[in-house]
Amino acid sequence: MSESEYIKRSQQGDADAFGQLVTLYENKILNYCYRMLGNRADAEDATQEVFVKLYRFIDSFTGQSVFSTWLYKIASNVCLDLLRKNKRHTDTVSLHQQNAEGEEFLLNIEDKGLTPYESAQVSEAQRALFLALEQLGEEQRQVVVLRDVEGLSYEEIAQITGTAPGTVKSRINRARQALKKLLEKDRELFSLS
Amino acid sequence: MKHTCENVKELLSLYIDELLCDDERDAVFAHLETCADCRSEYEFLSGIVKTAKTMPTLSVSEELHANIMQTIARQTKAKPVKRRLWRMASGFVAAAAVIAISLISLDSLPGHPDLTTEPTPKVTATAAPVTETAEPAEKTDTTPVITLPPSRPQEAVSPTPAALQEPVVPAAEDIPAAPASMAVEEPVYTGDENPQPEARSFSGSRAEETVSCYYIGEESYEEAVLILDAYEFDGLAYSIPAGEKEAVCGKLESLSGYVRHTGEQSDADFLRITLVCE
């Protein structure tokens, strides 16, 4: 059965069809929320809320927009609301630390209990990027996540964020510049050669 | 076409995304071949983008999936709403709007990100467009929405006392006497029955509008400044350029924005407003 079939049946009240939609998208949404919110517990709460909202408002989906774009939009709203509500400022934890003798060492994230990912197979670069993402402003984080992590097009991002494509271009550019600055000390982790 | 290093660095983002036109792309390419500094920047940025593309992913646990499905089983769906609500007589703003306000008092929310429960302050219920409907049994309020009185300079519409005391349930109730100049086009539905909306409507679509809000309960807010900064249509959000709000209102079917109320509640609390325009 196609996605549009599931949507139609969900609108007619078919709970199984809606369950299929959840299964189709729950991982994507969980990961998007995770990258926006920075911790798994919040991401799971947000994911649940996204699908509850989807269920409540699925009848208002007319098919004029792409379903996944619409769903990302809902997820963005949920995440941004949560971020604004909590107004939490991520503690800036530099990966570069000094010990008592003034020697520099690279902070192992596990020391702070900040394991962003469950798998141990996370590279230094990925850890550094994850931390840097959390230090970006919400809107910059959103466009970088949507573009580089979720792989969406500029047009889709424009629809999700409710801005013009030109704004998306400049926002992505500024976000990437900000990431470069945050990651300057770890430059060698990222350079291709 | 030659570029300075500064130009090229600005273009690297679009270059990596392959969104430059051929001429620009060739120019950047040529510059990168000869400039080690810019090439280093390019490799750094490329490396970041590549790393982002391959971030490890989480998987939804069976428990989470089950929780999602159970929570959904307790919900009831919002019925599709009739979009046309109020028609204002001439003399008012051409784009009529009804505002239903969902009170989200963020501080008083439990940790659960469910935005439909609202312990205090209570608000009048109204049949707002695209609202939540009957809540699970353990929640006491249904959609805590209010409609605002119209923001008209000549007269203030005082809220019907009865409306203020009605429980927060979109039960079937008559529309309190609407001002003579307003005619209700169609009732707005929130649930399975056809509850009548609370009476007061708000017209106007300016970026900032001062309106009066009335709430059931201990606290009442004298004024709220309506800030429209974004809206949703068909589930997609758009931002509203300041000069276009009235024009936009004529085309849209729903708006949502934030109200920061200037009353005694702290400014950190926001109300979500859903505007429906003709």
- Count, helices of chain B: 6
Shape of chain B: elongated
Overall CATH architecture of the largest domain in chain A: Orthogonal Bundle
Instruction: Name the strands of the widest sheet of chain B in spatial order.
Output: 4-2-12-11-8-6
Helix percentage of chain B: 10-25%
> What number of domains of chain B?
2
Question: What proportion of the residues of chain A form beta strands (DSSP E)?
Answer: under 5%
Helix content of chain A: 55-70%
SSE order of chain B, one letter for each helix or strand: HHHHEEEEHEEEEEEHEE
Q: Describe the largest sheet of chain B.
A: 6 strands, antiparallel
**Poorly predicted ranges of chain A:** 88-95, 107-116
Oligomeric state of the chains in view: heterodimer
Count the beta strands of chain A.
2
CATH superfamily of the largest domain in chain A: Winged helix-like DNA-binding domain superfamily/Winged helix DNA-binding domain
Would you count the extended β strands of chain B for me?
A: 12
Our count of domains of chain A comes out at 2
In short:
The complex is a heterodimer of chains A (193) and B (278). Chain A has 193 residues and is mainly alpha-helical. Helices cover 64% and strands 3% of the residues of chain A.
